[in-house]
Amino acid sequence: MKDVVNPFDRQKIGEVPTHDWNTVDGYLAKAADLHADRSNWLKTHERAAILERVVEIMKDRRDHLAMQIANEGGKPLIDARVEADRAIKGVELCIEDLGNVRGTEIPMGLSASGDGRLAWTSREPIGPVVAVSAFNHPLNLIVHQVCPAVATGCPVIVKPASDTPLSCFEFISILHEAGLPEDWARAVNPDRDTATKMVTDKRVAFFSFIGSSKVGWSLRSQLAPGTRCALEHGGVAPVIVDQTADLDDAVPALAKGGFYHSGQVCVSVQRVYAHSSIAEDLANRLAEKASGLKVGNAIDEDVECGPLIRPAEVDRVAEWVEEAKSGGAKVLTGGEKLSDTTYAPTVLLNPSDDATISRNEVFGPVVCVYSYDDVDEAIARANSLDVSFQAAVFTNDLKAAMHTYRNINASAVMVNDHTAFRVDWMPFAGLKTSGHGVGGIPYTMHEMTIEKMIVIKS
Q: I need a labelling partner for 427 at 20 to 30 A (CA). Which of 141, 253, 409, 449 fits?
């Protein structure tokens, strides 16, 4: 068994079983057999009925699920409740989108060679899915990786983050309670070598990964021939704020986007490029907002910023801030460890573009504000990294908004909203080293199916 601890006080809150290769191999064998024998396939209405029961169970346990998210992951309870609601909605989205898992007619009469034929496609489950997940949304990420597989009829094996496995194991248990046969969905907690062996096994049809780019790209390079995949990594989210922006609206949004879950979000606000006429004012207002945030144990009702997931992450963030400070950055608030497990919400003004914190995802409660005079120069600085995910622009000038939208490297650009905005039915995709494939419930369901065509000559 593996102990699970609260990341704030490091006290044990639960445990999950560990799994060796023999167990994982058995799960993979059963998943492959289930997919190979079409008489085993669950009908669409059967899968929908199971997921409808999952929704009812989750609604009944919503407060418990939220407390568990906060307790194991350090996400403040107020935000953990939002995650629990999102996870429930995610299951509902899978049910709703089942009606869109369909093919199309292919016109055959476009040339003489197609005459006398009818053709159409249908969609079938791709096969066994293996998912590896991240710690920062321990329930909702599991729903995004597991539920589309269940909905489309794919057997699935999921490995949650080792720091936050409780929500995952409970969700799989809820699926079984709702009527899904156990072999169709399994949660595992193997060691690293066993996990790698599982992911790269030739029986895996689709690999879903959420986590660091280093691990994700490494695993992709080792996949068996034919295995499809989706990778979601992180970014160093850029924001452009021009001189027409309404700071009364921008500052609260930037604070939420930067300090939500203590910055442990893959599209968290990190680099804010503000016009030189407003940069200092914006940074000071943001610092004032950050300094008023309450830091503590995420399970406490009034806490707004919880701990980082591990003490080593607190030390790393502290090192990056100190390096930026030594390089000329001005610390407007924070800039210090509050304990072994917490770091103060921090705002830095004009760190060097070469600083580690300017070039890498901090995954901590730090927002950097940079001054610019020319917006194209700011966009070039924003585009200078090898990551590309979500970005934002704050402006009251439509032409300026469109200029940034067209020129900034991003898969999505928010106008007058923070970079971490998301609803679970929209496409969510990292570009360049930030990922591969497209997330979001409907898009994942599409990727977990294959399009199969029939051509009839008559």
A: 253
